[in-house]
Amino acid sequence: MDKIHGNAVQALSCVQSGHTLMVGGFGLIGAPLTLIDGLAEIDVTDLTVISNNLGEAGRGLGVLLRQGKIQKAIGSYFTSNREVGDYYQKGEIELQLLPQGTLSESMRAGGAGIGGYYTKTGVGTELAKGKEEREIDGVKYVFEPAIRANIALIKAHKADTLGNLIYYKTARNFNPLMATAADVVIAEVDEIVEQGELSPEEIVTPHLFVDKIIKAKKILTKAGVVSCE
Amino acid sequence: MSEKNDIQELIAKRAASELKGPCIVNLGIGIPTLVAKYIDDKNIHLHTENGLLGVADVEEEHIDPNRVNAGKLPVGETIGASFFNSAESFAMIRGGHIDVAILGVLQVDQTGVIANWAVPGKNIMGVGGAMDLLVGAKKVIVTTTHTTKDGTSKLLKKCTFPVTSTRSADMIITEMAVFKVVNRKLQLIELMPGVTIEEVRKKTEAEFIEQRIDNNENSFAGYIRS
């Protein structure tokens, strides 16, 4: 089975309007910039995007925001793209804010067949309003449901031809979690190597989680986001 | 250097003096980030919630855009550093494996409860790791300017912004004074150089206990440091 696709648009053929998408990255760091470019090209709307941020103004997921393709965003820190607030004030986007640890743990649960879990985080705050509270051994917790997506778009450093993935420095962030929590997982990577070239000890995401692979054509460098072939 | 920078550096340096290795420390965005440069102890390991234990300074030529801290600023890595995913990083935080968190705030009240993630009516829609750090870190140190830009106290009787947690911070460090939070009460334990107790009283809305052990009216050097 060949998981390797020639370009982003081809790999994204499974994305439909109304889908829920997980998109990796902490801001632009570890974000699948080539796949996001591909999403900007295809005709899909009313997307729910689960990602820590919505990129930056006009960069990364910020491009899709300007295109009006995002109906709802679930994340922990929208402040890094100031335009999100403007769209929100105008009622053009729905936002769900989760603590960063809750966002990541909900993905982990979603990928592991867990329906939800209780966390101490957020108890007694506005973010816990309406959530079930439960006391366990004298400590208060709130219930958080697991989250899953139709499609996950992730960024890894290297893939082998089977789909095993390794990551690079803090570009790892949410990517390995999202790889477990979606029906279809598309990985954008800096380099594709032959099966056997990655040590079994270093593989972070085993290949069973990965459905499609593309090679990155846009990467984050010291000078900013640049195109590469 | 501007006066604002001087104030931030003063607060950061004072916060660094609270850290004694061996310990794991998480530094928040803003003034807390500056604390790193005043740490000179190989047994103090810095954690950043985006997935790195072993944060180090980085020189210009070694900057890697894919190696950043929680403020998305480039950082270095120590020998013995490790990278991990966000769920593992927050398991470290929530699970009680972080000894000290140093955080910035918008407001802190006289019980030590902080607000640092939202301003009603404004487009601040980020919480990041703040709520997790408050419930998980063994000790929370707040670093903040004593007043807002227009001179009103950031140390209030009660927070008017949404709170980050019901848990109190353990210590508050400003450019004017250092407070300890004991049994949900603020105790003034130290005045910063050149600051008088009258000035602190004037610029602090929150009630606090003056825990003086010194007889000299003008010197608070004898405040209990613990």
Description:
The complex is a heterodimer of chains A (229) and B (226). Chain A has a single domain (8-227), classed as Glutaconate Coenzyme A-transferase (3-Layer(aba) Sandwich). Chain A has six helices and 13 strands. Chain A has helices spanning 8-11, 33-41, 61-66, 83-89, 100-111, 175-178; strands at residues 20-23, 47-50, 70-75, 94-97, 116-119, 133-136, 139-145, 149-160, 165-166, 182-193, 212-215, 218-221, 224-227. In chain A, helix 2 links the parallel strand 1 and strand 2. In chain A, 51% of the residues are buried. Chain B is α/β, with parallel strands linked by helices and 226 residues long. Chain B has a single domain, classed as Glutaconate Coenzyme A-transferase (3-Layer(aba) Sandwich). Chain B is built from five helices and 13 strands. Chain B has helices spanning 3-16, 31-35, 86-94, 130-136, 197-203, and strands at residues 23-27, 44-48, 52-56, 76-83, 100-103, 107-109, 114-115, 139-143, 155-156, 171-173, 177-182, 185-191, 208-210. In chain B, helix 3 runs parallel beside helix 4 (130-136). The longest helix of chain B is centred in the N-terminal third of the chain and has 14 residues, at 3-16. Classes of the chains: A alpha/beta (229), B alpha/beta (226). Chains A and B meet through helix 4, helix 5 and helix 6 of A and helix 3 and helix 4 of B.
Number of domain units of chain B: 1
- Which pair of protein chains has the largest interface, and what are the residue counts? A-B, 52 and 42 residues
Query: Class by helix and strand content of chain B?
Result: alpha/beta
Number of strands of chain A: 13
Radius of gyration of chain A: 18 Å
**Spatial arrangement of strands, main beta sheet of chain B:** 4-3-2-1-5-8-10-11-12-13
The CATH topology assignment of chain B is: Glutaconate Coenzyme A-transferase
What is the number of independent domains of chain A?
A: 1
Distance between the termini of chain B: 32 Å
Strand content of chain A: 25-35%
Low-confidence stretches of chain A: none
What fraction of residues of chain B sit in β-strands? 25-35%
CATH topology of chain A: Glutaconate Coenzyme A-transferase
State the CATH architecture of chain B.
3-Layer(aba) Sandwich
The helical percent of chain B reads 10-25%
What kind of sheet is the major sheet of chain B?
10 strands, mixed
* Count of strand segments of chain B: 13
